[in-house]
Predict the structure.
Amino acid sequence: MMVGMAPAVAQTGAQVVASGLNNPRGLTFSPNGGLYVAEAGKGGSGPCFAGPEGQACFGHSGSVTRIDGAGQRRVLSGLPSYGEQGTGNSAIGPSDVAFQGQGSMYVTEGLGLDLDFSKTIPALDGMGKLLKKQGAGGRLKVVADLAGFEDANNPTGDEENVNPNSVLSTGSARVVADSGANDLLRVAADGTVSVLATFPNRLVDAPPFLGLPPGTQIPMDAVPTSVARGPDGAFYVGQLTGFPFPVGGANVYRIVPGHAPQVFASGFTNIIDIAFDQRGTLYVLEIFQHGLLSGDPTGALIRVDRGGGQHVVMSTGLITPGGLALRGGAAYVSNCGTCAGTGEVLRIPLG
């Protein structure tokens, strides 16, 4: 869904804490209290090629912005990005941020393309990576070539595609949810990549517009978009789902390394991020509340109770939201996550 303007915030109590962002996505708080948001950028002048949602053009417009009491400022810029030709909307680029200690910032750099195709465009070589910046004046370096890992291993045995969308820092390692490769990866301190879990295709009902016989089922990619550490120490992963993007078809999985993923909560639509608060309550962010094929860009922030019940915290005013972080009784959401130049970060009181 291509969206050009961020809406006025209609939810009473929600506050805009940053604006003018380029396709804002994942959010996290640093140890010193700053809120960081990955901006996927807006592409650039080229080369241009057929992207996932139409003609797209490459550029170095990806960035990371810090938000604190002094305002907002880009602390990292010039990262690879490609976006819709002419608008820069729906860009792929920096997708999430995580910290280890006071100084090490990790950034996932998306790709979202078939690897055989991306290899024909040399400008894209810097995408599909996990990056690290050490300290304010440190150099940015590649920690792990996730596209290279997928190319060499292809853990699911499916189409070779990579799109690292979420990163979690845990001890000496990083955990990455790769929505293109349909897996959950562990990146050790030395850059060694290993597989924590894979998410196989599921069979779902074919939508009527395909004209297939009634009862026909088709395979659907999992598309894991987010990873969080639960209060029990397990990893939790939210899924966007692939085509046909069924309403209510997305799950939150619980992953214990060495065991197959188990469904923890279900009945969601197009999950883009998840987070637990300090009391262990799960919050789920849907990028399209009514389904990606609905034409309605409204998203939703949902609280999940202990019994699995879903309670919408906010929907009106959320347009293709891209990331979620929780702190101090509030949710911070990157709003209009598919918008070049008009993306925002909202603070939403949780009551």
Q: What stands out?
A: Confidence is low (pLDDT under 50) at residues 1-8. The chain has one domain: 15-349.
